Amino acid sequence: MGALSRKAVALTALCSLVATLAAAPAFADEPGDAPVLDDATLTWGISGYAQVGIFGPWTLSGARGGAEILRGSVSGGSQDVYAVAPVPATSMPRSTPQKTPNAVRFTGGTGTVDPQTGAAELSWTGSYTVNAYPASLNAPDEVYSDPVLSVARSGAGTLSFDVAVGSGVDLDGQPSAPVRVGRVTVLTFSSGARSGLDDDSFRLTPDYQGVTVDAAGGAQVRSCSTSGAATGWWGSWPADFVAAMPASLQTHFYSTGCQGTQDSKPALPVDVGFTLDGPDPDPSTTPTPAPTTTAGPTPGPTPTAPAEPGALTWSFADATASLGTATTADGAFTATGTLPAVTITDTRAGSPGFTLSGQARPFTTHDGAHVLGAQHLGWQPSLLEPVAGVRAGRAITPSTVTGGGLASPRTLVVGGATRGERTVRVTAGLTLRVPDGAAPGRYETVLTITALG
């Protein structure tokens, strides 16, 4: 698909990294195939402990990208999007009247959800910041970015984030250095964790009870009584996540005692929302007017397969694309190119619309000795001519995060319902960006374009 070159300082030799992108068409409209989404939501209230804290509710701030902060009545807000029952149903503390929690909400999630089983592979972009202490204590900020959710039909799964902790002062008043945790599983879900599965949402209850951890923050309490209506709860968030956090923050995520605020430490449920209806044009965007005879690009290649009456057909202008020779800058190889034009013709009467999406396989060398994740590939879809009721998918940037970039299904183009025939041509700018430490060699991948409609 492209060539990556750099001079190896030690040997003063020119090394190249080459990749070839081949587009392989495929339809996925058979029953049981998971629909590709680009509008999934993820809403989460962190924990009951985050709603009360030691000095009051934790501060949620700095929402960026697809993230937003929802203020509940615990902080004087009025959000009504995310609601949970109090202890013992969840870790939300009881109050009179019952208060609503603060939460973070991610929108624009992409991936797949099987509406029959609830199996899901979804990812979001954006970040938010958490601080459990008043600003006057200069405690370090925790930044959680780009969540990736993977859930099996059993309900078992994981929710991971890219996590970073800023500099600050620890509980002993000593300076604490920033920590780049990286991609880590923040929540796990056991079989049966999913509830409320319907045609647009489900809820996941994270693991905590009985999970053990050996943490630098202090000993974990692993036995609590249930006498006197006590919950008997003890446990932990995932051990790897707890261990990766600074010692001064670790105790927020596991049991160091019984009852009281300890019952607030389990993670609150995670709500996932999605839309499985037929594709519609973006309601926030004014439909693009149809092109006139005096404007628009020069027509591209004629589709290789003419449309039959009453059918949805599509084809590539070319089966391969090249990104040429890449350059190195800012510690990364970068190469760019263009996806061959895809022509979609819809002649169905009363068409419900269509969605085309793409997902890349990992890049591999010919001998299979080296592999680059498909998350390093991104794209910027665009229509070659404006068509009423049709919109290109959003830009996807290359990523170092598992499941990012084109490693997950991403929308190329969406056409809303229509009564008339139409032809749409779409392309995408392609960008490959990989760390300059990648092994030199020739790499190839296959980009599969899937049509639903």
Show unreliable segments.
1-32, 278-308
End-to-end span in angstroms? 29 Å
* Percentage beta strand: 35-45%
How many domains in all? 2
Report the structural category: mainly beta
Number of helices: 3
Please summarize the sheet with the most strands: 14 strands, mixed
Q: Let me know the average pLDDT.
A: 81
What's the total count of β strands? 28
Shape: globular
Please state the CA-atom Rg, rounded to the nearest Å: 25 Å
- Helix % is under 10%
What attributes characterize this protein structure?
Immunoglobulin-like; 3 helices; twelve-stranded antiparallel beta sheet; 453 residues; 3% helix; single chain; disordered N terminus; mainly beta; 14-stranded mixed beta sheet
Give the arrangement of secondary structure elements:
Layout: E1 2-8, E2 13-27, E3 36-44, H1 48-52, E4 59-65, E5 67-70, E6 103-113, E7 120-123, E8 126-131, E9 142-151, E10 157-165, E11 168-169, E12 175-176, E13 179-189, E14 194-195, E15 201-204, H2 239-244, H3 247-250, E16 270-273, E17 312-316, E18 320-322, E19 324-329, E20 332-346, E21 354-360, E22 363-365, E23 371-372, E24 377-383, E25 390-392, E26 410-415, E27 422-435, E28 441-452
Protein name: Htaa domain-containing protein
Organism: Cellulomonas gelida
Region (Disordered): 89-111, 258-310
